[in-house]
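Supplementary notes for students who missed Thursday's class. We covered one full example, reproduced here. Read the sequence, then the structure, then the short commentary at the end.
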Amino acid sequence: MAARRRTAALAALLAGVLALPLVTGCSGGRDDTDCGSLARTIGEDADRLGQAMGDDSKDPQGAQEFVDRINRDLDKLSKQDGDDSSVKGATTEIAAAVSDIQDGIADGEHPAPGPLKNAVAALNKACAAG
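Structure (token representation):
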């Protein structure tokens, strides 16, 4: 019985420690969680965008859906963290990469997702460091 309580206590402590970085990113207060949450959402949408543009399943409509999602989340993030220069820089990089991808899709090309992935990584880093 005591071993079970220790295991439960250890699991609760571990969950708290793992959740701490999610609460302490960005610029302060409630916005911290929102910055990290939006960064993760943008990252997931960027991955899905890459899948929609993939060689096997080139799907311009699906790609546009994820472009729209990313742009909406970037808008939310810019309103929330407008004074954080590293977040602002990363969102600018993401917006430029998304624009390049949109242009490539419109031209019938297969744009490389690398610049978008790099920009998303910079956003994650900015949200965690802020």
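Commentary. Helices lie at 2-23, 30-52, 60-80, 85-106, 114-129. Confidence is low (pLDDT under 50) at residues 1-32. If anything here is unclear, bring it to office hours.
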